[in-house]
Design goal:
- The chain is an alpha/beta fold.
- The protein has 2 domains: 201 residues, DHBP synthase; 142 residues, Response regulator (Rossmann fold), CATH 3.40.50.
- The chain has 13 helices and 14 strands.
- Strand 9 and strand 10 form a beta hairpin.
- It starts with a strand and ends with a helix.
- 39% of the residues are buried.
């Protein structure tokens, strides 16, 4: 067994390279997380996976969790997540909560996004994902230190990363997330916070507050404004506040009924947001008058809006985003990033309007 000591909570780059090389050759590693120590291997190393089951005396019917360094990894395995998944991730990841989700074949898969620098350092170096489970014999107490791992397994482990005593000193909370809501399968770290989240999710909310209107404006309503509308709709839904807002978009020189541009459709699809149903529409005085906030992509659009309604100036925000039409993916990526950054700068004001 090779043992590595962390320095200031992380490993040296050359140590990480040495570990990754060994893992690619089928090694099994024990490493710290914020909850307990885990035992893991690369996802494509079947002999190493078999070794983990053998030394833990774990039933083969109990799958290993996929430990990840980004929520984006989930979407490569689970094509359709529950509507509240974005809010769940925002509340608990990275953190001491393991989420079980259903794939298209109704099979379950567990995901753990740890809040531990050395764990994330190792996972990221392995391509963003590794299979792992707690580093103990099944049924025994989970280890919270490197010495606990040695007491359980001796030198059977190929690599041991010693990061000291874990922060929470208890297992992660395991939850199952379905379209009907979430439930706790195993209580562990932050279980009370998770339970509060699920209680709020299961409690019907009656809200009589009038909806606030957010309007995005660009030129043809096929590129920038649909991306802004699509992202804000997605965000509000992910935090459970979509019922408080009406979000729409238009163009100052739009032809009604056109779909979003291919560049916008592709970029939003990469973000997990579907705007295929979008159809362009021309700006109207009624849209301007009912809007509480108007996001204009440029000062040209602001000028056109004020031509319709001179009194609307106080509710106009200019994002100053260039038109990406006719350019490639990088331009659309920058356009999307600038739109989202601009929206986020005003999110607090938007959300306070609905309080």
């Amino acid at each position: 067994m090779i043992r590595f000591e962390t320095t200031n909570g992380v490993l040296q780059d050359k140590e990480v390279q040495q570990i990754v090389t060994a893992l690619k050759q089928g090694a099994v590693i024990a490493f710290p997380t914020e909850t307990v120590y885990g035992i893991g291997c690369l996802v494509d190393q079947s002999p190493a996976i078999d070794k983990i089951y053998a030394i833990k005396d774990r039933k083969s019917s109990k799958p290993l969790s996929l430990h990840i360094s980004s929520r984006d990894i989930v979407q490569k395995y689970i094509k359709r997540v529950p509507t509240y998944f974005g809010a769940f991730v925002a509340a608990f990841w990275p953190g001491p909560v393991t989420a079980i989700l259903y794939d298209e074949q109704k099979q379950t898969a567990g995901f753990r996004y740890p809040d531990c620098p050395v764990a994330l350092q190792l996972i990221e170096a392995c391509g963003g994902k590794i299979f792992a489970t707690s580093a103990n014999v099944s049924g025994a107490r989970s280890p919270i230190s490197a010495n606990d791992v040695i007491n359980s397994f001796g030198s059977v482990i190929d690599i041991l990363v010693d990061g000291g005593t874990t922060r929470f000193k208890t297992d992660s909370t395991v939850v199952i997330l379905s379209d009907d809501g979430g439930d706790i399968v195993r209580r562990g770290a932050n279980a009370e916070g998770v339970q509060d989240f699920f209680n709020a999710l299961h409690t019907p909310q009656k809200d009589t507050r009038p909806m606030k209107h957010i309007l995005f404006v660009c030129t043809g309503n096929t590129c920038r404004s649909p991306m802004g509308e699509g992202w804000l709709r997605w965000y509000l839904k992910s935090i459970g506040k979509d019922h408080l807002f009406q979000v729409e978009s238009c163009g100052v020189y739009a032809c009604d009924g056109m779909t979003a541009s291919s560049g916008s459709l592709n970029k939003m699809k990469q973000e997990g947001i579907d705007i295929a149903a979008h159809r362009s529409q021309s700006v109207s005085r009624s849209m301007i008058e009912r809007a509480d906030v108007i996001f204009c992509m440029s000062f040209v659009h602001k000028k056109e809006i004020l031509n319709f309604a001179p009194k609307a100036e106080d509710k106009i925000v200019v994002l100053n985003v260039d038109d990406p039409i006719g350019f490639g993916g990088d331009v659309y990526q920058n356009c999307f990033n600038n739109i989202v950054t601009g929206i986020k700068e005003h999110l607090d004001i938007i959300l306070k309007m609905a309080q």
